[in-house]
């Protein structure tokens, strides 16, 4: 088992190498931007496993009652040879990664309708599904660094990693919690000062570990992203500080997410008739989460076509309908040029118009606000492999490469019918508006299906639940809808949706006890007084030399 690029070339990477490819693409980056950034495959592609491993023949019975961690080990070890990480070390690493989860089952399912389950992925430290991957990734980085630094004497140069990222609020904390307190790793997360929701700001800035640096930049989220891009493209700075990003293109993140598809499938099968069918419904942004589901299916997990649920940023739903992968919707009259800021006010139908920034629409489900879905390139490769090139990997990469170049130069490409048919065989897709999102939050709270309790969902989860309803299958099929965040994390959208429900009480119904007192906890933030990248570089330099002075010398 090795890893190869979706765009071809000769490099064959090991699991360790591929885990440390730090393509920086936090949304809403577009593909052309990635190429200048460190760590991408030399040809701009993404890494995929050279083969799909085989499950043991009787996995469904043998794995039916395994705890989450053991299932995770069984699946992860299929892709991570012992020469990369010995079995006992990998087991330990996985055990540690999920010991931070509050729920004994880690990712439990809850039935919310006669044919519908919610897969709760928000029991990790920051109440969002990204914890599943980032708790694992943080430990993986620590493990590899420890191994490389083993036997180093005091004062000797050490291997180090400096993670830098920008956040609009929702993903920064999962990254911070993934690496807090870890030796030889420091993390700098930039957020726009005063423009992050109070809960999310508190979640990030109350982490006081000395390797965690929250930077409040006087500017917008886009400014923060520009600063990060600029840091990554400064080769000298990058080489010196070994910059890394922890975005959703990272292979190890995808890998760790495969587990909960199997886990929830096995749980649901125990609660449904023996001939029941399972269908997954996944709220989707960068196509990382659902790509893990695709790999689960490729490994042999039985599943009806999975539902891609998008918000108004619907490139995937448009592609599903037309076979055209197009950055901007050519049927819409608003076609902003890149980086332009346009806010359309009062659309003609009287509904509230969405703010459009650089072509990305600002919705109630911000973690899914993207122009293009970076991980979709990986799926495309498999589609091409099956439908167009008779299983020839080199030819598949050449085709993907061609399309990605087209996307870069023309903002679009289209695929032949055979390819589209394969895509439609494995996936369905639906676009959900903000209005429908709000209605769905309301519906699950105040009008649950007869016999089921009231459930408060976050706006991302609501997008999935709405899409599930649109694609409701026959009575023998049970849907598993992925809940990607806890409702408390997106309190504004939830409170807005439920403001007229007299029986709704945010503190009582939604706020977890871990959030009590959060706003009053001690915080540590570095103010960055402008958007010139030099200002952020100075902060990183000064923290690095402080650490060096304390005897922790980086190489
Ligand atoms: C990141 C995120 C998503 C989208 O996940 P992708 O892997 O990018 O598709 C959905 N919901 C929440 C809450 C997220 O944080």
Automatic annotation (TrEMBL):
<keyword id="KW-0663">Pyridoxal phosphate</keyword>
<keyword id="KW-0791">Threonine biosynthesis</keyword>
<keyword id="KW-0456">Lyase</keyword>
<dbReference type="GO" id="GO:0004795">
    <property type="term" value="F:threonine synthase activity"/>
</dbReference>
<dbReference type="GO" id="GO:0030170">
    <property type="term" value="F:pyridoxal phosphate binding"/>
</dbReference>
<feature type="modified residue" description="N6-(pyridoxal phosphate)lysine">
    <location>
        <position position="130"/>
    </location>
</feature>
<feature type="domain" description="Tryptophan synthase beta chain-like PALP">
    <location>
        <begin position="111"/>
        <end position="333"/>
    </location>
</feature>
<dbReference type="InterPro" id="IPR051166">
    <property type="entry name" value="Threonine_Synthase"/>
</dbReference>
<dbReference type="InterPro" id="IPR001926">
    <property type="entry name" value="TrpB-like_PALP"/>
</dbReference>
<comment type="similarity">
    <text>Belongs to the threonine synthase family.</text>
</comment>
<dbReference type="InterPro" id="IPR037158">
    <property type="entry name" value="Thr_synth_N_sf"/>
</dbReference>
<dbReference type="InterPro" id="IPR004450">
    <property type="entry name" value="Thr_synthase-like"/>
</dbReference>
<comment type="pathway">
    <text>Amino-acid biosynthesis; L-threonine biosynthesis; L-threonine from L-aspartate: step 5/5.</text>
</comment>
<dbReference type="InterPro" id="IPR036052">
    <property type="entry name" value="TrpB-like_PALP_sf"/>
</dbReference>
<dbReference type="InterPro" id="IPR000634">
    <property type="entry name" value="Ser/Thr_deHydtase_PyrdxlP-BS"/>
</dbReference>
<dbReference type="Pfam" id="PF00291">
    <property type="entry name" value="PALP"/>
</dbReference>
<dbReference type="InterPro" id="IPR029144">
    <property type="entry name" value="Thr_synth_N"/>
</dbReference>
<protein>
    <recommendedName>
        <fullName>threonine synthase</fullName>
        <ecNumber>4.2.3.1</ecNumber>
    </recommendedName>
</protein>
<keyword id="KW-0028">Amino-acid biosynthesis</keyword>
<dbReference type="Pfam" id="PF24857">
    <property type="entry name" value="THR4_C"/>
</dbReference>
<dbReference type="Pfam" id="PF14821">
    <property type="entry name" value="Thr_synth_N"/>
</dbReference>
<dbReference type="GO" id="GO:0009088">
    <property type="term" value="P:threonine biosynthetic process"/>
</dbReference>
<feature type="domain" description="Threonine synthase N-terminal">
    <location>
        <begin position="33"/>
        <end position="98"/>
    </location>
</feature>
